[in-house]
């Protein structure tokens, strides 16, 4: 698998790592970490940091385009500094495998094109599956 991190994600990572306090680590998740990215895919990051880090990110960094960024604080809670997304890392069943990789349970919408055509409405299922996370920094 060839890891491709788009320029806007690289720029965000650079900005995040220059903040004080700096994050503990930054991980790539989602389609780009699991070799399913398309031209339309965004970049999904999990950043391990602190509540102070979230405040610094909001104050000093503009909302990134095409990058979703979840900051884990207090060891388990996470939130996106720029969007209304929050949750618990334990719900993702996050487990670090080694220094550079982790596994978690990701939820993905899987459209059912045949049923959508038959019933004239968007049909599909939310599917949970084990996903790979790749450490990008440090």
UniProtKB/TrEMBL annotation:
The keyword Nucleotidyltransferase applies. One of its GO terms (molecular function) is nucleotidyltransferase activity. Keywords: Nucleotidyltransferase, Transferase. InterPro entries: NT_sf, Polymerase_NTP_transf_dom. The keyword Ribonucleoprotein does not apply. CDD domains: NT_KNTase_like (cd05403). It is an enzyme of class 2 (transferase). Its EC number is 2.7.7.-. Gene3D superfamilies: Beta Polymerase, domain 2 (3.30.460.10). SUPFAM superfamilies: Nucleotidyltransferase. Residues 14-94 form the Polymerase nucleotidyl transferase domain. This is Nucleotidyltransferase domain-containing protein.
